[in-house]
Amino acid sequence: MTERVDRAGLQVAAPLANFLEECALPGSGVAPDAFWRGVADIFARFAPENAALLATRDALQARIDAWHRERAGRPIDAAEYQAFLREIGYLVDEPAPFTIAPGAVDDEVACIAGPQLVVPILNARFLLNAANARWGSLYDALYGTDAIPGAAAGKGYDAARGAQVIAWAKAFLDRAVPLASGSWAAFAGGEPALADPAQLVGRAGDTLLFRHHGLHIELVVDRTHPIGRDDPAGIADMILESAVSTICDLEDSVAAVDAEDKVAAYANWLGLMRGDLEETFEKNGQPLTRRLNPDRSYTAPDGSAVTLPGRSLLFVRNVGHLMTTPALLLTDGREAPEGILDAIVTSLIGLHDVNGARTNSRAGAIYIVKPKMHGPEEAAFTDRLFDAVEDLLGLKRHTIKVGVMDEERRTSANLAACIHAVRNRVVFINTGFLDRTGDELHTSMLAGPMIRKGDMKGADWIKAYEDRNVQIGLACGLAGRAQIGKGMWAAPDRMADMLEQKIAHPRSGATTAWVPSPTAATLHATHYHAVDVSARQEERRAEPVASLERLLTVPVAHGHNWSPQDIADELENNAQGILGYVVRWVDQGVGCSKVPDIHDVGLMEDRATLRISSQHIANWLVHGVASAAEVDAAFTKMAAKVDAQNAGDPLYRPIAGNEETSLAFQAARALVFEGATQPNGYTEPLLHRFRQRVKAG
């Protein structure tokens, strides 16, 4: 039983109280007594409203379920459907034209287009890798991946592979920083004559710094280096500005179920904001300590000093409105809304940067991504909550910026109104195909059996969703003021495919898109040199916004008769993905990892992918496409598959043959068999329940 202490009538878990009073508050300028009184006031004001918003979600879902139940077996009339959604308040009126005004924001948010990492905040080593991924070696990224055909031979340096890498990189440089004549492949060194001399913006010794489309390229010239000594120009490496920003995630990629977990997460965020986070680990039998990289210094052509950030601009993603946390109990003894606690604590920690050296935000902002909001009413709630936190911490209004995850159906259907609700602090919108699909499945659970999961990406509502996100964002003035983002590339070992496909994101007019690793960030950065995102946004401004009717088209499989094998394949694919993720979450507390899929391809999985798979099977159960026995058979068969895929993990607990005792297996089943009744189809309530049981022994 966790010890609790009384603070202004709140019952606070001792580990959280100790962390706040001994680590987070000192140096913040906020007195502990005033802090706790303010925290109690915020919970008294906002916890009841948070509960009311969740009740509204449930009420709307009940009305939608009843509407579909009454029309079972009939095609959905688009006009009738929209009229119904407006009648119940699911759809709201569009706001009059407006332009967002978030105030002082960093260039990485307003005007630099480039890759974005999302990293679990509980893993300090991953956090440091991500923060330091602002700069990455293109040579290394190409050499060690399948980005270009072939692979290095042997354990030492493979000169043939190296030549292949250098040729690719110099061809890239020809496109991004062309010479006045000739190719970089033939460049013999000395002063480069550029087609646009203004692209040379700095030097550090013999190393040259170029800028293209707002991103920097560092050409490392070192004739003593093993690579540089064999290069005609002495080029030893090509360093790209890569992960321009990083989201440090408290939400879908972590398993934080109690006060101890929350404190560990908050402590890592504090280390980042103070700049003193470090992690020591063993590599090749030797201890290695990783720290945050310093800034990078150059001399401009006019002799002035040039300093560039050495690290990604860091956002923190709070949890949504749904979950509560045992880390703090309200005056009535109930668990506190976790999202409110996150807003208070992560902003308090942000003071160490804002009022300190500003090693993260030179503009003096605190960047919080807010996920899983349903509609403008919930966005407005977040805006008022952040007002209250600013007042508590003595911050100027709108110091706390917000990123709106456009990942729930009621938000994407009312996106302009959602942006309007946070127009003075919004710095980010993005599409999240995975959660958005999960919400699509749950919202329309009773409309009919859904198309197969693999067919979802080709559905017309997805295309409308992706288009509307950019089109509405541009109409609301996000260009030059805020990020418009796109979702994750989930296959970290398939960089050739990523290079071929993910260029679609900057071509869409999005200023950023998620990648799964620092290496992927460096490779994806080449796309932002290939596409002038600002020019692409200007082109897209003229487009009409994709219709709401297309967005609201429910992906029901009308008149589709799947074969028994089709059904078995779909169930097994979903069951394997569920088990592979849940067994790590529940048994080991791993919220995001590379999980082999049914074909043994490693995919980055988090709760969003789990939400789709569990809701899809739940939908097929509801409509009789599959029986409970068939689902159980798929789980049992896939348990053996997942055990085999995890055979090399010494911490892994086998589930095949232990189905009755494995809490992970029971959690996986519950996510499906209780899926139709979970709030909005979210997986968190069940995952937390089973993880807490594992931690309790």
From TrEMBL:
Residues 567-647 form the Malate synthase C-terminal domain. Acetyl-CoA binds at V118, R125, F126, S253, R290, P516. GO terms for biological process: glyoxylate catabolic process; glyoxylate cycle; tricarboxylic acid cycle. Its EC number is 2.3.3.9. The active site is at R317, D606. Keywords: Acyltransferase, Cytoplasm, Glyoxylate bypass, Magnesium, Metal-binding, Oxidation, Transferase, Tricarboxylic acid cycle. SUPFAM superfamilies: Malate synthase G. Residues 314-543 form the Malate synthase TIM barrel domain. Pfam families: MS_C (PF20659), MS_N (PF20656), MS_TIM-barrel (PF01274), MSG_insertion (PF20658). GO terms for cellular component: cytosol. Its cofactor is Mg(2+). It catalyses: glyoxylate + acetyl-CoA + H2O = (S)-malate + CoA + H(+). Pathway: Carbohydrate metabolism; glyoxylate cycle; (S)-malate from isocitrate: step 2/2. Residues 18-72 form the Malate synthase N-terminal domain. Mg(2+) binds at E407, D435. GO terms for molecular function: magnesium ion binding; malate synthase activity. Residues 157-188 form the Malate synthase G alpha-beta insertion domain. It is found in: Cytoplasm. Glyoxylate binds at R317, E407, G432, F433, L434, D435. It is an enzyme of class 2 (transferase). It comes from the Bacteria. PANTHER family: MALATE SYNTHASE G. Belongs to the malate synthase family. GlcB subfamily. Involved in the glycolate utilization. Catalyzes the condensation and subsequent hydrolysis of acetyl-coenzyme A (acetyl-CoA) and glyoxylate to form malate and CoA. Monomer. This is Malate synthase G.
